[in-house]
Amino acid sequence: MVVRRLAWLALLLGAACTSPPPDAYVASSGIASAAAARPAGADSRGEACLSQDGRPVALDYPVSQATEAYCGGYSQPAARVFALIGPTDDAALDRIAAGGIWRSWLDQRLACGAPQATRLGDGSRALVLACTRRQGGWQHVALVTQGAEGPVLADGIPTALVVIERLARGIAPGGPTAAAQSEALELQTVRLAARAFGAGDVRDYEQAMNLGQQWNAAENHVRAEDAYRAALAIQERVLGAADPNTVGAVVHLALNLSNQQRFREAEALFLRADGLATRASDPTAPARLAHYRGLHALNQGQHEAALRLLTRAEQLYRVDVPPSLLNTATRDDSFGAVSLSSPIAQTAIVGLAEAQRGRATVLARSGAGPQALALLTSARGLLSQVEYDPDVVGGRSLRTEAAVRDAARDPGGASDLLARAADRFGLAAPGERAQARTLFLLGQRRAEAGQTEAALAAFRSGAEILARRRIALETDQVLAYLDALGAQMARQPAAAASLQREMFGAAQYAQRGQTSRFLAQAAARLATASGDGRVADAVRRLQDAERELRALFAERDAIGAAGPTVLAELDARIDAQQRAREEAESEVAAAAPAYRQLLLTAASPDDVARVLRPKEVLVQILLGPRFGFVLAVQADGAVQARKLDLGEAAAAALVARIRRPMDQGGAGDFDTAAAHALYQGLLAPVAPALAGAERLVVVPDGPLLSIPFGVLLTGPAEPGALRSAPWLLRQAAIVHATSPQALVTLRNGAPASTAPRPYIGFGDFNPPTPAQLARSFPGDRCAEDARLAEGLGRLPGTRAEVEATARFLNQGREASIFGADFTAAALRRADLGQHRIIHLATHALLPGELSCVQEPSVVVSPPPGAANADAALLRASEVLTLRLDADLVILSACNTAGPATGVDGAIGGAGEALSGLARSFFFAGARGLLVTHWPVDDRAAAFTVAYMMRQQEASRDSAAALRDAQLVLIQEAGASLAPDFAHPFYWAGFAMIGDGRLPGPQRVAGAGAAIGG
Description:
Number of domains: 5
CATH superfamily of the largest domain: Tetratricopeptide repeat domain
Domain CHAT: 673-995
CATH class of the largest domain: Mainly Alpha
InterPro entries: CHAT_dom, TPR-like_helical_dom_sf
Protein name: CHAT domain-containing protein
Signal peptide: 1-24
Largest sheet: 9 strands, antiparallel
Coiled coil: 535-587
């Protein structure tokens, strides 16, 4: 696992973690061995149970025997039974059940009703308490009855009540009295009938929550999101979606979405939590909701709101903190620990400390450094009173204090704190994102202090982790690394070539949230649902090898200053495991050659140069908040890297100006000044590397994903003289790539399709009904999405488009599928691997346009009688499982490539989602995609398609053929037709992602058109 110390990791509220499972606070021996365990019969769900001796706890009377029962393979007790030595009269039993030590012990974990008198199967008097777990909301039951030497006390999940009764009465499973009717069981019948669940459900829920906690500690919010979604799904299935005790999973999921800058989705979940928190069994739920809402506001830069919410969270947490701990003087950051018996008090204390840390962050950013430091001191004092993970919490606390010192213009102090924080994360989550991110922050602080050598040492240490774990960081942090390399290059001009090559490798560790999420989902989908057993087994072996390697790194970090013999032995094991991982990865690459597209692997300049063609240049661009970098790789492997003054907000503004007339159907003059300014800001700095290039491979970033680069102007132009304007398209054919590694992978694959059939096309889909959309987009979270999805109506023009394309390629009606037949199932049945051109003339939905569509998806017809619209969305992870051998996939959808910003204002959201969709098609076996950046005029589309296919027949590659068609529209159609087809609205919307068809032997091939919607 990524992080150890699971019991106390649960206390990390500030990192979007949940509170510990109740059993984390209870002495539990676990099932030690088969010999120690005894059969205990089956529970009411038929799950086999075992019992064993447990450890006694201090209760109302001395404990003569403690027994634990384990059911369904769950590693936590499904029930506990304590036999006491003491009186068994009614008054004694009533006193224990109503307010004794045992009842207080229960109340720390459970919310229980009043005791109800009943009788067990042998007639013994008993008291039953119907309870709910404070954390997780699971139903629970407690029981007090008479034993041979004194009271018998028991508690467990309701399905274990039959086992509890056996153990309490000493009845052997299947014995003569075991079948006697028990009134205690009758009391539970109604509850169990309504919400039947067993130990396995609780186990799965807690495992999912623990995984979420671990990924949070590693600051991998994409993986944490998946884990919390799984936990919530289990709760909703068992408890119901409206149960207030789902609030814990809901808010953890919401904050993870917010941490990925998916603010609209997070806000919908927080609104849902508003109606749940005050009714939850966990008394700290309202405090946690305010806390996480405060962090959500902080993520959005809403400092006043964050301060208000975090202050409110502190007030609510204080209610459940023992008063004696609230005014404790602080210690140093050694973080001692004093155990508390109440899990609620533990949660409240850590929650209070983490809310104070969050408020300190807000104050530091607002310039109130002394107040921020005082809050951090208070938080440390609180944490010193409780048990928790000192490395993760300590690392985060040190990192926050570093931010405070940095805001107070104390970069040296900030650097020292960050170095200590990196060491802490190295113990808690060795070789994971949290440690790498902290090292990059340390490098940034050192660079700002002018310590370039020390900065590069920190950056390179962090980069080693990123490379080994194939994980990424935010673009602005990677840009700081590039900036430090640029500073070193200025100091050491003789090392410029090697430093620029290092820049190119480092640039590939930058990844935006949507891309990270897609790649994680895609890898998981490949491992579990590819339909190819070889692939699934190979990926599983790779994941096992990586997990074992993480454990070895953790073991090495934990042993500290062990003797040289011990360290040498462990290092040998690490080396062997690294080789095992490499072998497993080779197996995956052999079983699924495109798998590397789903991993963050850095292609070297030499890797890229080997696949570049003569007179071809690859250009990668990264944009951060304040500046960016452009890197050009030439066919000889030379790299030019230049810093850009243009930041992502300024670039997004220029993109918006370029797109404005396009998004308005071609109305208005094209903004030539913006198109020239964007060229000057992005490509002019590496113009010498582009000189003479006949083909550009562009790897864009952020808002640049939302425009075709051919529309940029290499020089000034007037809006009224577009035919003669110096479009970048005149200089070179342009291919857009999702990453340098994707280009290398694609070009190292099969050079051309060997499919026997030229073409298959799908169009004129039947949209889902409003009722179907309403079921797929619940009104409490996705009502706006349902309204927008209803606007994605039919595209009747796509029928004529597909038919015309099929006729051009001499294909019969069997090559065209329309209307109700255009379903996801039809795509899977169509044997797509037999076709060189696959044409999907329909809409695409991209995350950022619809917040509840979490993967880029192609819209198809729902199957007949479908209850909802789910089957009408062919998701990117499902595209992975298709088997293609296509030169080209045409996504002639309205606005396939998307606008520059998503609904949350996330820069490049929809274009980034298109990148994920493209990766899916590439993995499935496509060599290129033809997409549209805005709804395209039907006449221009028809001309472009026909001319492009004619050029391909003449052995032009797809990108060159598209360029030929676009230049004809600019030069000739613009001169003779009205409207003026030289306007970019008509010709520039088309773009190639990937190569498509490359030059080769002449054969029939084709491409389809994009129709505006």
